[in-house]
């Protein structure tokens, strides 16, 4: 693959210009561009510029409101409902996190329920923003079905991601951010392209039979949750939090509402924040840090999030797929 070198700031500008040229106002373009460039900065390229053509498709089809103005409604001292105004999630998240942080810092616990918004990114930005305020964060969302529940023969769940961040004052937080699918769809596609098998448990074929044939999964088959029925239970919980508690679309409902433009699907996001200072009291940071230090000191263990944090320290340009950059430049000149 031919690549070009772009600094994080150039990546941001490339994304921002493309979003602006396709109907985003300044605040929406900036927020989405920050999410995209921070993914590239952290080496999470599956949620960086690679997503931009999808963002543009949903602006051009009129599905997403590029001039969205999120509004917040306080349901109680601990619960905030945020209407994303049919915009991309990054602006809604940036608007809602300070409100959530204030609620959780006062009450010990707070929830942010984002409705009417389109999530097309990784979830670590929102939970890390809470950890940066010394709060524990947990976030989850859903999109459209592509994963079969344990025992089923057809898709019902999206790949339902969940992220968790635990603050460690003075150093990077502990963060995991993962889909509940056994393997990302992109990885299965790569295996299919290379003629390689995938482990049993990754997917089923179009007839619903378990298979190691990556091509059969790609050709009308479906992904499976990680860990069999246990992952299926976590994916169920995510649907119930992001749609049931938030009051937005379950994955199968979001599919019915979608216009198939290849961009993100409408959906809800559930974000929980907790204040360890209030809940555990003084000494929480040292106590938890000792635990995490013991964990990371074990042979063979690395903490989730450390790969991204190591990438984040790199100051040089990032290698970006040259063909993708050309596509984005074309999209910026509609
Ligand atoms: P991965 O399987 O690559 O990683 C999941 C988590 O495990 C990460 O926190 C990662 O940390 C950690 N990890 C990976 N390897 C190790 C290891 N050897 N030891 C310890 N920890 C490890 O991610 P997924 O493919 O499941 O998901 C990728 C992204 O896709 C996520 O950001 C998710 O939010 C996003 N997503 C978004 C959706 C949406 O609708 N918006 C839908 C589905 C997924 P590290 O990053 O440091 O490697």
Task: Write up what this structure looks like.
With 334 residues, the protein is α+β, with helices and mostly antiparallel strands. It has a domain at 73-181 and 225-305: Ribosomal Protein S8, Chain: A, domain 1 (2-Layer Sandwich), CATH 3.30.1370.60. It is built from 13 helices and twelve strands. The strands form three sheets. It has a seven-stranded mixed sheet, sandwiched between helices. A hairpin with a 4-residue loop joins β2 and β3 (79-88). α1 (8-21) packs antiparallel against α2 and α1 packs parallel to α13 (322-331). The radius of gyration is 20 Å and the shape is globular. The protein starts with a strand and ends with a helix. Bound molecules: NADPH dihydro-nicotinamide-adenine-dinucleotide phosphate. The site of NADPH dihydro-nicotinamide-adenine-dinucleotide phosphate has 23 residues, from β7 and α12.
Give me a quick take on this structure.
This protein has 334 residues and is an alpha+beta fold. It has helices spanning 8-21, 26-41, 52-60, 89-107, 124-131, 185-193, 214-218, 229-245, 251-257, 276-279, 284-297, 306-312, 322-331, and strands spanning 3-6, 71-74, 79-88, 109-118, 136-141, 162-168, 171-178, 203-204, 210-211, 222-223, 266-274, 318-321. Strands 2-3-4-11-5-6-7 form a 7-stranded mixed β-sheet, with helices on both faces.
């Amino acid at each position: 693959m031919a690549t070009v070198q772009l600094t994080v700031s150039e990546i941001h500008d490339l994304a921002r210009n493309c979003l602006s040229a396709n109907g985003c106002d300044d605040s929406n373009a900036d927020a989405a561009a920050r999410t995209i460039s921070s993914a590239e900065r952290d080496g999470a390229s599956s949620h960086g510029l690679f997503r931009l053509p999808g963002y543009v498709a949903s602006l051009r089809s009129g599905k997403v409101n590029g001039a969205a103005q999120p509004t917040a409604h306080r349901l109680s001292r601990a619960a905030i409902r945020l209407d994303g105004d049919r915009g991309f999630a990054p602006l809604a998240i940036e608007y809602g996190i300070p409100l959530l942080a204030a609620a959780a810092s006062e009450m010990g616990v707070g929830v942010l329920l984002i409705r009417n918004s389109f999530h097309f990114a990784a979830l670590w930005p929102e939970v890390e923003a809470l950890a940066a305020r010394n709060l524990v964060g947990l976030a989850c969302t859903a999109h459209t079905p592509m994963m079969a529940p344990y025992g089923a023969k057809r898709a019902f769940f999206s790949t339902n991601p969940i992220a968790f961040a635990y603050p460690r004052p003075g150093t990077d937080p502990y963060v995991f951010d993962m889909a509940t699918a056994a393997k990302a769809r992109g990885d299965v596609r790569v295996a299919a392209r290379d003629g390689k098998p995938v482990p049993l448990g990754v997917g089923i074929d179009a007839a619903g039979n378990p298979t190691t044939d990556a091509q059969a999964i790609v050709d009308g088959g479906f992904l499976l949750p990680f860990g069999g029925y246990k992952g299926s239970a976590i994916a169920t919980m995510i649907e119930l939090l992001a749609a049931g508690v938030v009051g937005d679309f379950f994955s199968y409902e979001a599919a019915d509402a979608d216009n198939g433009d290849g961009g993100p699907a409408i959906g809800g996001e559930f974000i929980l924040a907790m204040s360890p200072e209030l809940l555990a009291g003084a000494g929480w940071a040292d106590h938890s840090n000792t635990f995490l230090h013991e964990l990371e000191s074990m042979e063979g263990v690395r903490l989730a999030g450390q790969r991204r944090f190591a990438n984040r320290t790199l100051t040089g340009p990032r290698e970006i797929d040259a063909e993708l950059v050309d596509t984005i430049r074309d999209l910026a000149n509609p």
